[in-house]
């Protein structure tokens, strides 16, 4: 069991490197097996196929991203509006610095890359996980606000932030404040405590 977990992590780590170097479309299972020092049948057994490796890689990246996001939200809990601004800023900075995400977006802008749908049109793992995190956090910091409004505000925050990751605004330094302002308008709640 420990070997399987280590093998899985090696494969995903090497898949991330290969995708960052040349885009996901150029990642081949044979190259991945060679770099991860495992057999191709082991990769197929663990992940099903190349697309399975891609799904697992996006899932791992999303989980890491969300852990960082949760830390930022918690660190600024005393001021929910500032917390949301800091969280959006964190996502934008991390997305800009992430070589894997950069490769996916660059390939997509060129008309290719099979991983982009995991970030944009499929709810899992990115959208739904971020929405659940934010909905839960809003429930803690503005419990007096109606649950449906919190869910709607979380949806807006996630969609706007992802939109800015995919297509940055000309004055992106204003994005965190703009997203936060829109979310608090939907909440109809005081912007801070």
UniProtKB/TrEMBL annotation:
PROSITE patterns, A to Z: HTH_TETR_2
Domain HTH tetR-type: 5-65
InterPro entries, A to Z: AlkX_C (IPR040611), Homeodomain-like_sf (IPR009057), HTH-type_TetR-like_transc_reg (IPR050109), HTH_TetR (IPR001647)
Keywords for this protein: DNA-binding
One Pfam family this sequence matches: TetR_N
DNA-binding region(s) in UniProt: 28-47
Gene Ontology MF terms in the entry: DNA-binding transcription factor activity; transcription cis-regulatory region binding
Keyword DNA-binding: yes
Protein's UniProt name: HTH tetR-type domain-containing protein
Organism encoding this protein: Streptomyces bungoensis
Source species taxonomy: Bacteria, Bacillati, Actinomycetota, Actinomycetes, Kitasatosporales
């Amino acid at each position: 069991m420990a070997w399987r977990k280590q093998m899985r992590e090696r494969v995903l780590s090497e898949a991330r490197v290969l995708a960052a170097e040349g885009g996901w479309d150029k990642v081949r299972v044979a190259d991945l097996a060679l770099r991860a020092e495992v057999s191709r049948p082991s990769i197929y057994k663990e992940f099903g196929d190349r697309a399975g490796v891609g799904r697992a890689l996006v899932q791992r990246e999303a989980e890491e991203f969300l852990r960082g996001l949760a830390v930022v939200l918690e660190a600024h809990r005393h001021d929910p509006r500032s917390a949301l601004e800091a969280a959006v800023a964190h996502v934008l900075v991390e997305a800009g610095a992430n070589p894997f995400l950069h490769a996916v977006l660059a390939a997509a802008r060129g008309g290719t890359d099979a991983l982009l749908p995991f970030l944009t049109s499929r709810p899992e793992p990115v959208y739904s996980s971020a929405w659940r995190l934010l909905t839960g956090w809003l429930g803690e910091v503005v419990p007096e606000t109606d649950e449906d409004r919190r869910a709607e505000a979380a949806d807006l925050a996630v969609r706007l932030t992802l939109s800015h990751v995919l297509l940055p605004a000309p004055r992106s330094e204003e994005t965190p404040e703009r997203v936060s302002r829109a979310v608090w308008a939907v909440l109809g709640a005081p912007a801070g405590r």
